[in-house]
Amino acid sequence: MKIYQYPSGDAEKRVKDTIERGLGFSKQDQEAVEVYLENVKTRGDEALVEYTNKFDSNKVTIDSLKVTPKEFEIALKNVDASFLKALDRSVNQLESFHSKQKENSWIDTPRNGVMLGQLVKPVSAAGIYAPGAKGGKTPLVSSVLMGGIPAKTAGVHSINLMTPPMENGEINPYILAAAWKIGITSVFKAGSAWAIGALAYGTQTVPKVDVIVGPGNIYVTLAKKIVAGTVGIDMIAGPSEILIIADKHANPQFLAADLLSQAEHDVMASSILVTDSEDLAKNTIAALKKQIEELPRKDIAKQSIDHFGAIMLVPDIETGIKLSNRLAPEHLELIVKDPFDYIDQIQNAGALFLGSYTPEPMGDYIAGPNHVLPTAGTARFSSALGVEHFTKKTSLIHYSKAAFKREADDVIRLAQTEGLGAHANSVEIRKKE
What we know:
Rossmann fold; 433 residues; 45% helix; alpha/beta
């Protein structure tokens, strides 16, 4: 990991490379996903099972596509007590946080004879996607919780979980235990783009949903991009990112570990340290070199660090914050002596982690906020997955006759200005009554 003096030409090039790395879709990927989606749309369960048999497990049939109550029962017996304890804590804290995001319908009477308001309602059906990760051997339990809990909190009646089966045709028991814990009993054995297609269009077995959320590989992401508009989606997510702003008081061992926590995700992941201490920068590099050799995913982490890792040496913390706001990172750790003094300067970040004992993985699993966050600089204009992704708002408008007549002429004038005679007449005809 190289140290760059910021600002400088070399540092600016590194920043530009990080900003522009993004998530690219090849023409081949686009065409392949379009075929998957069209086949699922036209052939339903048959196509869904065909792709599942080809890529994940030849044990899945149309009859076994949906997880049965018996499979849930077996799964709950096969998970250990320590997992269930951790699961309980995570669920309780996620539910507590997301309950505070709920919005209420409201009504106002701002003018005599006029009632205005807004109805806030949940969507009828939501689809949650949980990646298979190593053929289901490393179950992404947190994806189930992060998608399912805000949907349940919003009041969504029908929640359907799609996740790839293991080679034996079963879903990892830890995934099923997590789904059961939060009340999701509609689980289907399918992954990748064809799973997204099934949720978007519906099949003979899989219900059509209104919103699809959850992380996934490039095929999942591209499929969500294509079906957006047919259904709502959470976001188009790119590779993982972490940016750490640290001063001389920070522990370099902590910093190295946190940088690697994102680097192990993906060779395209970005891990950047911004500091005003050259000694800290050098000590962090030394710690990182040692820690990376001990990682099971060290090959991925090394590529990530080599291509998109950097240490930016800035003249002061304020300059570092300005750089961070430019990058708008998915995860921002502020590990300085008085982190709360800088909160009002943070403009763009998916999630902000304050202090030495708030590493990013606390947010991934158990803190409470959602870990599905905007990436690739989109924190400039978008937010974490939340209850609002599963709700819709309907405006309420009522005029009495007297209030209508009081404002009618202004509506007519504005409609005529836009050349919309029928609009004007809709109001004019009522004035004559």
